[in-house]
Amino acid sequence: MTVLIIGDDAEFARDLVNRWQAERTVPTFTLMNSTVWQGTDAGFDLAVVGPLPWGRLSPLLRTLENSFDTPVLCVVAESGVVQRIREEFPRVLAIRNREDWLETTVLLGAEALRRVEAKARAREAEQAAAASHHHAVLGRYMLEMRHNLNNALTSVLGNTELLLLEPGTFPLEIRNQLNTIHAMALRIHEILQRFTSLDLEMQCAQKASQTETTTWARGAGKPV
Q1: What would the pLDDT profile of 25-64 be if each residue is shown by its tens digit?
Q2: Which CATH code for domain 2-121?
Q3: d(CA 125, CA 29)
Q4: What is the domain partition of the chain in residue ranges?
Q5: Is residue 2 a contact partner of residue 27, using CB atoms and an 8 Å limit?
Q6: Which of 7, 22, 74, 86 is least surrounded by CB atoms within 10 angstroms?
Q7: How many other CB atoms sit within 10 Å of the CB of residue 148?
Q8: pTM score
Q9: Which residues lie closer than 8 Å to 41 by C-beta, 6 or more apart?
Q10: Residue 80: beta bridge partners?
Q11: H helices then E strands: how many in the chain?
């Protein structure tokens, strides 16, 4: 997790980083001056903006809100600025620069990072599930096509073997090609047999898992 801190006051960034170091989980920090940052760095998970004049703060928040899908915390010195931020930038959370601003900022920032991390794990899980579903569909199709493939393969093997039974009919080069076709057809047959074997192994493993779950549930006194 990376936190981008934007502010013109070096003490603001230093105090925030030092306070965050006391937490159990400490993110990586990127410190930028508001006049230097141009909205080109997307490598952060949370942005924290320090107190700035409204003329400089407004375009900066607009860039953060429109160009990045990351949470933004903004520490402000005036209550009127808090209201303007709420009206113009609904995704930005404004924090008054009072005595407890440091604790509040770190607390909200840590929670925001936890949510970002949870969303990232959820996206990864969805992608993994989609990939597994794709592989499952492909596997089912291959299993369903075994019969047709075996029929076609039987025809290839049978006709190749019939041709090879007539040694004087073809020159040596053609016979070598027929032998190659026959060998490759046998190899494909072995692969299809392995598909069948894997299917049976997976069915047995599934039944064993179901039996184990049922046994555990009964032993625990839970309805099955």
Answers
A1: 899 998 888 887 877 665 889 999 999 888 889 999 998 8
A2: 3.40.50.2300
A3: 27
A4: 2-121, 145-219
A5: yes
A6: 22
A7: 9
A8: 0.60
A9: 4, 30, 32
A10: none
A11: 6, 5
